[in-house]
Amino acid sequence: RPFHVEPTNIVSVNEDMQRVTDEASAMNKRIHYYSRLTSPSDRALVAPDHVLPAPDEIYVYSPLGTAFKVDSCTDGYGKNSSIVTIFMIWNTMMGTSILSIPWGIKQAGFTLGIILILLMGILTLYCCYRVVKSRKMIPLIDTSNWEFPDVCKYYFGSFGQWSSLLFSMVSLVGAMVVYWVLMSNFLFNTGKFIYNFVHDINVTDIVPGTNGSSKVICPSASSGHPPQNRSVMFFSGNNTGFELFEEWWSKSQTVPFYLIAVLLPLLTLKSPSFFAKFNVLGTVSVVYLIFLVTVKAAHLGIHLEFSWFTENDFFIPEFRILFPQLTGVLTLAFFIHNCVITLLQNNRNQENNVRDLSVAYFLVGITYLYVGVIIFASFPSPPLSKECIEQNFLDNFPSDDIMSFVARIFLLFQMMTVYPLLGYLARVQLLRQFFGNAYPSIFHVLTLNVAIVGAGVAMARFYPNIGGIIRYSGATCGLAFVFVYPSLIYVISLHRAGQLTWPALIIHIFIILLGLANLIAQFLL
User: Fold this and answer.
1) pLDDT of residue 77
2) 408, 373 in Cβ contact below 8 A?
3) C-alpha–C-alpha distance, residues 180 and 156, integer Å
4) Could you tell me the end-to-end alpha-carbon distance of the chain, in angstroms, rounded to an integer?
5) HSE, side-chain direction, 13 A CA sphere, residue 131
6) Which residues form the Amino acid transporter transmembrane domain (predicted)?
7) Measured in whole angstroms, how far is the alpha carbon of residue 418 from the centre of its chain?
8) In a structure prediction context, what are the per-residue pLDDT tens digits for the chain, which is 525 residues long?
9) What distance in Å separates the CA atoms of residue 423 and residue 268, rounded to the nearest whole number?
10) How does DSSP classify residue 53?
């Protein structure tokens, strides 16, 4: 029936109506987002008809990072504050690459390594700006629900669609392979620690190492040292049981196969939403790693000697020709370009996107610098050489180290919960593209899962080098999503608008050449 609205209340009514409109718009975006991830017959991420989908319930996946659910600290209308947006970006980017940063600094040299972390952070941030702004530069089309692959399809047609799928699969499968190698490593050391503790066995690895409470070892010792896969045990009684354990509990020959029994069935689940509940473990793991690094450095002290171009028995030059190995790792370490639009579209104040993205990148760079520099600087040289820093710096601590044991437990459980989520996304992207259904049949799903798991087992068996895997996959997918596509799209959009200048063209061609050189260098060094 008719009612009267006081003029003083018009503003509040309009604000309420605007909030309802924003909420409805966010809801529609969520429905569209879900429909893009699942086929009509796959209800894994589709809300029932009688339930309104929450606008702040978005899953974001990042290679070598976490599967992050955007659902916390919203303002009740599906929007996040700037601090939450910054934390989500930091949390999504903080992945397993952090374990290889000290090794990368060693490959590049201490001074050059620090410079490269800063430069790669700035370069990837700039390319990320171009990704965020790419869909806004398309005229006369509603691109509010578009992701970056949609933008690639708009500019490059079917080539952009299929190439973005290819490079996305490279990043996902590469991440899953790294996860399998690391899970094998962590499970091996965890099982070894538990067995030795239960049976009261004192085992000393026959590798060079330091003495004292904070022992550091060098598993990749030169061939002049005793074999690194042997152990010496000190206990009385029959040693048959211990020898049998070592035979059936091998890091590369048996443990990678044991994981199949646990993870292959999890990959076949239609909905992985249960595992998303454990995403907080990713943040806990990173925070604990920072704590571990700080405590170890406090006990070991600082061991640095600046030798700019010459190498001695214990220290390395400040500048080394192997620096592209670090840039390959950093390309993936700073990689968020395939999901940054999803993260930022839920920001309450869209005008702060550039600022929030910059702050998040700054925090990520500081975290990488802290872990990498502290581990490198505190590595005890002498008696050990800096060359002993492993591709996974936790391998420089023996399996009976309590703090490292806790870190491995955290990381193992976190990876076992994220692995099915990555497998689900790979399945959705690939099978839906070819068959129009994310779960066409158990045969299709099982075939894909066996192929992915087989790749992980093969790498863990024959090439368990996570630094190498990360830099290859990072340089490959980064070539497309970080360097080439954002630069080309920006140049094309400027050209169509009649605003392209020679400086802009030269700068973005140079960025593309840097990405190409980064990829080629991975296979030459």
Assistant:
1) 52
2) no
3) 34
4) 79
5) 29
6) 81-192, 258-521
7) 11
8) 343 444 444 344 444 545 544 444 444 444 444 444 444 444 444 444 333 334 334 445 555 555 455 444 455 455 778 898 898 888 888 888 999 999 999 999 999 999 999 999 999 999 999 988 888 888 878 887 788 888 888 999 989 888 988 888 888 899 999 999 999 999 999 999 998 888 877 655 567 777 777 889 998 774 444 334 444 444 444 467 777 888 899 998 999 999 999 999 999 888 777 777 776 777 888 999 999 999 999 999 999 888 777 777 888 889 999 999 999 999 999 998 888 887 888 888 888 899 999 999 999 999 999 999 999 999 998 889 899 999 999 999 988 889 999 999 999 998 998 899 889 888 888 888 888 888 888 899 999 999 999 999 999 999 999 999 999 999 999 999 999 999 999 999 999 989 999 999 999 999 999 999 999 999 998
9) 9
10) P
Outline where DSSP puts E strands in 48-194: 58-61, 67-70
Region of residue 237 (phi > 0: left; psi between -120 and 50: alpha; otherwise: beta): left
Structure tokens at 383: 């008696």
For residue 30, which of 8, 47, 5 has the smallest C-alpha distance? 47
Tokens 């796959």 locate to 42
Considering just the CA atoms, what is the radius of gyration of the chain in Å?
25
In three-state secondary structure terms, 207 is coil
Token digits of residue 99: 């374990």
What single-letter DSSP state applies at residue 272? -
The single-letter DSSP state of residue 227 is P
- Helix/strand/coil percent split, the chain, to 5: 65, 5, 30
Residue length of the chain: 525
Which residue blocks in 199-310 are alpha helix, DSSP H? 240-248, 255-258, 260-267, 280-300
Q: What domains appear along the chain, each with residue ranges and CATH number?
A: 82-218+255-524 (1.20.1740.10)
Q: How far apart are CA 182 and CA 64, in angstroms?
A: 11
The values of phi and psi at residue 232, to 5°, are -115, 130
What are φ and ψ of residue 59, in 5° steps? -100, 125
How far does Cα 16 stand from its chain's mean position? 40
CA distance 362 to 397: 29
Please state, in angstroms and rounded to a whole number, the distance separating the CA atoms of residues 110 and 113.
5
Which residue, chain included where needed, has tokens 């049949």? 441
In angstroms, rounded to a whole number, what is the distance separating the alpha carbons of residues 255 and 9?
68
- Give the Cα separation of 423 and 248 in Å (integer): 28
Report d(CA 30, CA 77) in Å as an integer. 13
Angle at 463 between CA 461 and CA 465, to 5 degrees: 120
Helix (H) / strand (E) containing 113: helix 110-134
For residues 151 and 338, give the distance between their C-alpha atoms in angstroms, rounded to a whole number.
Answer: 11
Residues 265, 285: Cα–Cα separation, whole Å: 25
Name, in order, each residue with C-beta under 8 angstroms of 476's C-beta and a sequence gap of 6 or more.
Answer: 167, 170, 174, 519
In angstroms, rounded to a whole number, what is the distance separating the alpha carbons of residues 1 and 38?
Answer: 44
User: Tell me, what amino acid is at 245?
Assistant: F
